[in-house]
Amino acid sequence: MSNEQKPAATAESTLADIVSHAKEYGFVFPSSEIYDGLAAVYDYGPNGVELKNNLKQLWWRAMTQLNQNVVGIDAAIFMHPLTWKASGHVDGFSDPMIDNLDSKKRYRADVLLEEKAAEYENAGDQVRADALLAEMGRLLTAEDLAGVKQLILEEKILCPVSKTGNWTDVRQFNLMFSTQVGAVADDSSKIYLRPETAQGIFVNFLNVQKSARQKVPFGIAQIGKAFRNEIVARQFIFRMREFEQMEMQFFVRPGTEGEWYQTWKETRRRWHEALGLPADKLRFHDHDKLAHYAKAAVDIEFEFPFGFKEIEGIHSRSDFDLTQHQNLSRKKQQYFDNDLNPETGKPYGNYVPYVVETSVGADRLFLATLCQAYQEETITEGEGEKQQTKTRKLLRLHPAVAPIKAAIFPLVKKDGLPDKANEIYNSLRHDFRLVVEEKDSIGTRYTRQDLIGTPFCIAVDHQTLEDNTVTVRHRDSREQTRMPIAELRSYIGEAVSFSRIFEKL
Ligand code: ATP
């Protein structure tokens, strides 16, 4: 048996392959497809929802189970409208957009410039790429939209559709979706669909701190939907209008935020590696444009088939959010720290804590996991004259996140083998998600499970009826091991346990 990794195909075809694989095998479907879909909205299918739930669980438990000082909440999507005034989203949550007058297509001005910088980088001109990003950052920070347009013209950036540089001015476009509460539609009843989950955490800071009896430093974790009216929604589930975030706000004593920022930056990178995203496909990218309140911000980027792109942001946000909520709500958001300050010998006393946040998109993590797992390899099967070489596709998912942990195959549909397979299924179904498959040849059944990433296939044959042993076939190596049925629980349990990931952290 030999396995040889095939070099990655071209960027576009690889993403297209993944998109069609995701649909065909029940991972991701376009939303409302029978009506020709809804742009930038997707549904997760039977295998997709299992994989996504496993990824969310893995994050949740890494936060709230591995750290006594991180607790969770589940806040509502709707929030008091003043929340978004306080957070700056009403006035400032916008992207610079630009339209091409010939194609009538709309683009994000910063994305056009970033793509140009990536072109320079790919051509080996890192200096020019960095200079362009720095200039863009400077103009955006200064809110110089005319300057941004000028830069697009100077860089001779053309519309990919019309191939012309006939651009409108750059304008800001607010990304929040709004709707009305109650029966009367006027301005006072306008509320927003949250564009991030973080604010649900900030407004509950004191409720959580008191009820969970937490002392600073401590964190609040949350997983939930967020909505953004993205101008350019492309690249499959990478940029959606409805998506899911996994955020953790960590409240610290002012002055200690630098150390905590470094700690969380490293912790989160290790988490992605432990899950199976290789170190050489992950990188840190410092923000070119810092929000005015931010002390530091970095993205963890993954190398997707379409290049290195953000999957998670780590931000040191000072006391900006809590202070803003304190001002608008007129409710103190202070914490009394009774630890002794060694310099004064007195308690640190009252302060508004600083915040270091980690914010990862569940959907982007899902896509990164899928892109990494989706592999095509050349294998040799059989001996002597019967030997043949073929390619196989498989999802090399970490067993802990695989949608199905094991598939049980009776070798034939008779002689009591299906009953034996069902007996094994019933003895293990409290512990793992399993399937029993009787149809098709055993080879076809193996292939089907490889394509959805099932780590183990259990073959039930005539010998099983005699000595209660089965053959366990491993997805990645295709090796087969004979073992007693009585050992399956601990054998599979060991491989699919989250502990295999946690112990690498
Ligand atoms: P981008 O620059 O790509 O628009 P962002 O910097 O605005 O992302 P954050 O506001 O930091 O993103 O959000 C935190 C995380 O939420 C991101 O790292 C990403 O994983 C996820 N996320 C943000 N917007 C989307 C979206 N439209 N679709 C899917 N995931 C998203």
Automatic annotation (TrEMBL):
Organism lineage: Bacteria, Pseudomonadati, Bacteroidota, Cytophagia, Cytophagales
Originating gene: glyS
Species assigned in the record: Hymenobacter glacieicola
Reactions that this protein is recorded to catalyse: tRNA(Gly) + glycine + ATP = glycyl-tRNA(Gly) + AMP + diphosphate
UniProt: substrate binding residues: R108, E196, F243, E244, Q245, M246, E247, E357, T358, S359, V360, G361
PANTHER family: DNA POLYMERASE SUBUNIT GAMMA-2, MITOCHONDRIAL, GLYCYL-TRNA SYNTHETASE/DNA POLYMERASE SUBUNIT GAMMA-2
One Pfam family in the UniProt entry: tRNA-synt_2b
InterPro entries (alphabetical): aa-tRNA-synt_IIb, aa-tRNA-synth_II, aa-tRNA-synth_II/BPL/LPL, Anticodon-bd, Anticodon-bd_dom_sf, Gly-tRNA_synthase/POLG2, Gly_tRNA_ligase_bac, GlyRS-like_core
UniProt-recorded name of the protein: Glycine--tRNA ligase
UniProt keyword Cytoplasm present: yes
Subunit and interaction comment: Homodimer.
A GO term for molecular function: ligase activity
